[in-house]
Amino acid sequence: MKSRKRTRSGRRSLMIAGIAVAAVLLLLVLFLLLFQLRGIEVTGNTYVSQDEVAEWVQEDRYATNSFYLWAKYKFTDPTLYPALDGVEVKLKNPWTISVRVYEKKMVGFVYDETNYVYFDGEGMVLAIDLEFRDGVPFIEGLTVSQAVLYETMPAEEASVFEVILEATQVLEKNKIATDRIVIKDSQLYLYFGSVCARLGNTNLENRIIQIPPILEKLEDKKGTLHLENYQNSDSYISFDENVWPDEAQNEAQSEEN
């Protein structure tokens, strides 16, 4: 009798275990089917295409599961796409994820006789386009022999990109509009109509904010404003009327002609 009871109890335990395993497998299958990735919605992008973002997100071997992707970007710190500073991933529904991207800021562009080459504050190429993008300043004086997407542009001094980044940030912050931005020998020149402001490559914010009130006093005069040695309110600022730096001479003459 005891042996029969043990047999029945064993069978009952096996049955319960089998049912539990089947239930877990069923839940797993339902989970995989419910959260099977079918759509990716991308927002926040201006120069990185939706296809680029979607392909990057799906590079992971488990990227077919929307819940996995949400958890990955919610609780881990994955390697970002080269053109991005950040990303937010949300579940729009069990089978669709919403990807909000934060692109690296374009601080300037150069023209290589074929394409517009846009770069960030570290000199990394963010876009190579046939079309001009409004709102990004043209940087004169930088030469591009070979531009490769998401690689750093070659330059004589890497610090030149730091100078460009700082200058563009100060101009934007103080809402100062300039006609031209020129880099020569790592020195910064800003053009405002017929006035060229020489700024050097240090203490840029302090120097740039001096320009608007000085331009008001100069009115319609032409020449070079020397701020390259300006440090504080005790510093001397000079203006060479009808004198331009070498790189401005041809431009000034063509404007007069």
What percent strand?
15-25%
Counting structural domains, the number is 3
| Structural classification | alpha/beta
> What CATH first level of the largest domain would be assigned?
Alpha Beta
Radius of gyration equals 30 Å
Proportion of helical residues: 25-40%
Average pLDDT confidence is 84
Q: Low-confidence parts, pLDDT < 50 over ≥5 residues?
A: 247-257
Q: How do the strands of the widest beta sheet line up side by side?
A: 7-8-9-10-11-12
CATH-scheme architecture of the largest domain: 3-Layer(aba) Sandwich
List the main descriptive attributes of the protein structure presented here.
35% helix; disordered C terminus; elongated; 3 domains; alpha/beta; 25% strand; 257 residues; Rossmann fold
Task: Explain what you see.
- This protein has 257 residues and is an alpha/beta fold.
- It has three domains: 1-34; 39-103; 108-256, Rossmann fold, CATH 3.40.50.
- It has seven helices and twelve strands.
- The chain has helices at residues 2-34, 50-57, 66-75, 159-173, 204-208, 211-218, 246-256, and strands at residues 39-43, 84-93, 96-103, 108-111, 116-119, 125-129, 139-140, 180-184, 187-192, 195-200, 223-226, 238-241.
- Strands 7-8-9-10-11-12 form a six-stranded mixed sheet. The protein has a three-stranded mixed sheet with strand order 1-3-2. A three-stranded antiparallel sheet has the order 4-5-6.
- β7, α4 (159-173) and β8 (180-184) form a beta-alpha-beta unit.
- The longest helix is centred in the N-terminal third of the chain and has 33 residues, at 2-34.
- The termini are far apart.
